[in-house]
């Protein structure tokens, strides 16, 4: 399957049409097998300070293109194994 290992990111243009309340906050389950001492290791950048977990409001948007089917820009990322990459001429290292 040629689509295996493919991530497609489609960005669509929108028009801002006011503000609305944010989506309800989701409670995610804890990862399986999490040990309490593992959660204390971390890296920090500066002093901690409180902030919103989620902003109380977000933008209300509508499609820029009324048909809503076209992407403004599309990025396609394909993972290829080292073995497969070696068969492509422009990825071969000069020997």
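Q: What amino acid sequence fits the structure above?
A:
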């Amino acid at each position: 399957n040629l689509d295996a290992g493919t991530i497609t990111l489609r960005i669509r243009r929108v028009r801002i049409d006011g503000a609305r309340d944010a989506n309800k906050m989701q409670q995610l389950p804890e990862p399986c097998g999490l040990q309490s001492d593992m959660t204390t290791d971390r890296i920090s950048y500066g002093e901690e300070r409180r902030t919103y977990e989620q902003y109380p409001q977000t933008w209300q948007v509508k499609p820029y293109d009324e048909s809503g089917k076209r992407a403004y820009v599309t990025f396609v990322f394909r993972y290829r194994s080292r073995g497969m990459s070696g068969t492509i001429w422009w990825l071969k290292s000069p020997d």
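Q: And what stands out in the fold?
A: The helical segments are 82-85.
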